[in-house]
Amino acid sequence: MGEGSSSSYWNPGMDGVRVSVVNAETHAVVGSVIDLTNQNPGTSLVHFGKVCKLSYNEGRSLSPKVGGYSCIRPSQSLPRIISSGSFPASINAIRSYFTDEQTIRGISGYVGIDFETLVGGKYKIVIEPIAYFFFNGLQYAMTATEAALYDQQVNGGLRAKMLSLTHKNLPLAIFLEKADLGYPAWSGSTTQKVSNSDIISALGIGVVRFNDMTESPVTNSFDYEYRIDTDVITSVEVSGGQSDPDNPVSVRFSIQGTTYTVSNIYYPDGDSQLVWVRWRTPTEPCVITIDVSVVGGGLAQSTVVCNITDLAGKDPPNPIATDRNDAYAASPVPTNVEATSASWGIWSPRWHENWEWVPNWEKCWHTDHWIDADGKSHTDHWYHWVDRGWWEDHGWWEFDWNGYTATLTAQMDVTPDDKSPAATGNTTKSGYGVQENVTAHVCTNQSAAVTAAQNAVTYFPEFGYQTYWRLLEPTTIGKESSFVFRQNRYSTYNRRTHFTPIWFPDGAYTPYTWLLDCWTPAGMLSMNLTDSITIRGNLWEEWHIAPANP
Known about the structure:
This protein is mainly beta. It has helices at residues 53-57, 91-98, 101-111, 115-118, 144-153, 157-169, 196-202; strands at residues 15-23, 29-37, 46-47, 65-66, 123-135, 138-143, 206-209, 224-227, 231-239, 249-255, 258-265, 272-280, 286-295, 303-309, 341-352, 355-358, 361-371, 377-387, 390-393, 396-416, 427-430, 433-444, 455-459, 469-471, 473-476, 480-484, 498-499, 507-509, 512-520, 523-530, 533-538. The N and C termini lie far apart (102 Å).
C-alpha cells in the first residue's frame, strides 16, 4: 500500500463494480447507474455518487458526499474483481460473468431497461471496478477514475499511501483489449504502477456490446477532428523517469513546416505531464500529421494525425410556395458530444532543503619546545583531530500539482424574422423566416491554454436534423462569443434568416445548434442547444385574391 498505515488500508475482497448503460452512438448514459458488490461496505462512507467514467471524461467534476451510499448485492455473486497478493483476480472470469445472460437480465432489471431493448444493439454496458478502503481514517468507495481524479486534488496524497491499490490493482482490474467508446485498447504493463493520466484516459473500464463480437470495432484513424481556419490545441502525454530542473524535458511539435518547442516540462517519477501546443488550422480541408519528439529522456506519442474539415456548403435549398411534405413526422432532437467543463494541471517542482554536515577529519599538528631540569632542550611533535567539514544541502525535488479548469456556458435564441408581417411575439406563420442568436461564455483560470468557442452549426426539423445545416457566422470571438445566421442568398434583402417551409405543421418549430471548437489541453468543450418558436397558420393566409375593378 505504499505508505499505508492503520488509518490508510484496504482489505482484499472489498471490491465491486459500477455498471452504466450507454447509447452506442451518442455515448450518453441512459437508465440508472448502479454499484454491485458481494460485500456490505455500509452507507456512511465517503463517495462521489453514481457517476460513469464517460461522464467524468466529458467534464463532470468530483462531488464528494458523506453517507447515503447504496449498492446492490446480486443474487449471482460477483467474481473477485481486484487482485491481491494471496487472492488473484481473473479478467477472463470477469468477462465471463458480465457476458452471461442471467447477469445481463439482472442488470436489465436494476437499471430499468427492458432486456430485449438492452441487448438489441443500440446500447452498451460499461463496467468499472470499485474499491472500498480506508484513507486517513475515513472509508471511501472509489472507481479507478475517481481515485485518479481525487489523487490530483490531494496533490498525490492518495497515491503516496495507497499506491498498490489505487494506481495498480484497481485500474488494472478491468481494461479494454479492443478499443471501444473512444477509449483505446490498453497496451501498457499490467503489473506495474500507472499514472493518473493513464487511468483517466484508458484504464478501469470494460465494455459489453451486443453485436457480432467477431467484427472488428469501428476505430477512428484520426487523433483529432478539427475545423478549417480555427485556433486549436493539440496535446500529448509525456512520461518516463523524473523530469525536474536538473533533468528537464522539452517537447517539439512539427506542424506544416513550423516547429513549436515546449520547454521546462516537469513531473514526478512514475507520473506524467500533459503538454500542448496552440496553433491555427489551414483554410482548406486536409489531413495533417504532426511529428512529436521528446528531448530529455521522456516518452510521448510520436505522431498525431489531425483531420481538418469544412462545415460550410450544406445550406438548405430555397423553399418555394408549392413545396409539400405530407409524410412529415417530427424527428427527435439529436445530441452530439457535449463537454461543458474540463480540467488539467501542471506539475511545479520545488526544492526540499535537507542540510547535512559532511565531516572531514584532519590531523592538526603541534610542536612544543621545552628544557628539562638538566638544562637540555627538547622538541615534541603531537597532533589532535579537527573536523574541517562543511554543510551540504542533500535535499530533493518535490512537486506541487497546479490545477486549471475551463467551463463553457451558452444560450440560443430563435425569434421570428423582425421583418415578418405575420409575427406576433414568438409566434409566426410557416413560410416566413426565423433569426437566431447564439452567445457563448468561456471561463478559465489559464486563458493562454483555452480558445474561444469558434463555431456553431444549426440543424432544422424539416430535414430531420440531417442532410442540410447552416454554419453560423461569428460576430464576436473571445471569452464572450456571438453567432448569427449568415446572409441568406435567397432573401430579397439579404436577411440573416432561415425560411421555414410553408407546409410545416402548427406547433413548435425547434432548430438545434451544436456549439463547438472551444479547445483546452484536456480536449474540446461543446454544447447542445435548442430553442423554439411557435408556428400558427401559413403564409397563404396573408394572401387575398379578388377580381380587378372593371
